[in-house]
Specification:
By secondary structure, the protein is α/β, with parallel strands linked by helices. It contains 12 helices and 12 strands. The protein folds into 3 domains: 104 residues, Response regulator (Rossmann fold, 3-Layer(aba) Sandwich), CATH 3.40.50.2300; 84 residues, Helix Hairpins (Orthogonal Bundle); 149 residues, Histidine kinase-like ATPase, C-terminal domain (Heat Shock Protein 90, 2-Layer Sandwich).
Length: 367
């Protein structure tokens, strides 16, 4: 059942509007002033807000500004209730993000029509979101067979060799073949996971409400996570001595899920080790200010051309070719898109033969 919040300092407006809406089958919450209305909107998250403009202490414009500044409520449809007919007042509200106006006194038909129009608009947005997901899924379906075949051929080839030569394969060779199968299977799993993540990112990008919901997720002690990931990956490549870690556990919290944060750093730090030579340094450092937690990742590896850098994020033109070359692939695009999805900073500098430097910025969470 849809929930509607009515904010007005006139008691008769609250009573009459609530009665009309409840008769139409809506659940109704009311607030007699702006401050109370903002609190009920944040805590109750209604489906639509109806708000008077002219109220003492906190007027409707101030309520709207506060509603639109909060992640939890900024996408809720907002309809002004007003006796004003001056166009400048209408323009002021629309510029602030109001979705519609109802002029007092309004009829039951006018009230229900305004509300139904907002619900219809939300339905259209959801349909566009679904269509976007379907489009991405089709694109991925067309691309997946190529990526799968490459890895599956490696697995099948090794398995066939074992199957036809099992009675004369040396134990050492058998171990090497089995390692190849495991590594290929793990790569296949990662390809699948990355495609799914890529699709989810694209879907979130087409839906502002779902995107805003991501900002509600928090990562605690991100510096400690950076340190753990960097050490784990350095150990995987047997290059612990190449890692230069400059991290300070400052207790900052950031607006991103731990899962997404881990994915971003794991992809980028893994690339730094994978595409640089043993004995060369990989520097991972963190810092922070009042707005961001920063993570810097720098290597002296093969680097990327200007064309490759400009193509990061453009999957069709860039990632497939790189995957075939065992390159940075979809992971780099995912890392960039995830950072940008959370309104973070992503700065990539690289030159062929000179290495790559990446600086990330994640928004600090409010305490």
């Amino acid at each position: 059942m849809k929930k509607i919040l009515v904010i007005d300092d006139a008691e008769y407006i609250l009573e009459s509007t609530s009665t009309l809406l409840e008769f139409e089958g809506y659940t109704v919450a009311t607030a007699s002033n702006g401050a109370e209305g903002v609190e009920k909107a944040i805590n109750g998250k209604p489906d639509i807000i109806l708000c008077d403009i002219s109220m003492p202490e906190m007027d409707g414009y101030q309520v709207l500004d506060k509603i639109k500044s909060e992640i939890k409520t900024k996408t809720i449809p907002f309809i002004f209730l007003t006796a004003f007919t001056d166009k400048s007042n209408l323009r002021a509200g629309m510029e602030r993000g109001a979705d519609d106006y109802l002029f007092k006194p309004f009829t039951r038909d006018e009230l229900t029509a305004a509300i139904e129009a907002q619900f219809k608009k939300s339905t259209v947005m959801e349909e566009k979101f679904r269509q976007k997901v379907d489009e991405i899924s089709r694109n991925i379906t067309q691309s997946l067979p190529h990526e799968f075949r490459t890895v599956l051929n490696q697995i099948i080839g090794s398995a066939k060799f074992i199957n036809t030569n099992y009675n004369r394969i040396e134990q050492e060779d058998l171990k090497e073949l089995s390692d190849d199968i495991v590594e290929s299977a793990q790569r296949l799993t990662k390809i699948t996971e990355n495609y799914l993540i890529y699709a989810r990112i694209e879907a979130y990008n087409s839906n502002p409400e779902k995107r805003n919901q991501l900002r509600l997720l928090i990562t605690e002690e991100p510096d400690a996570i950076v340190s753990d990931i960097a050490k784990t990956i350095a150990a995987k490549f047997k290059r612990e001595s190449d890692l230069v870690l400059q991290s300070n556990n400052n207790g900052v919290r950031i607006e991103i899920s731990s899962e997404s944060y881990y994915k971003i750093l794991a992809e980028l730090i893994d690339n730094a080790f994978r595409f640089s030579s043993a004995g060369s340094r990989v520097i991972v450092e963190t810092s922070f200010d009042d707005i961001y937690q920063y993570v810097g990742i720098k290597d002296s590896g093969r680097g990327m051309s200007a064309e490759q850098i400009s193509a990061v994020g453009a999957y069709v033109q860039f990632d497939r070719k790189i995957y075939e070359q065992q390159g940075v692939g979809l992971g780099l695009s995912i890392a960039k898109k995830l950072v940008e999805l959370h309104d973070g900073l992503f700065d990539l500098n690289s030159k062929i033969g000179k290495g790559t430097s990446i600086r990330l910025g994640f928004i600090s969470a409010k305490s």
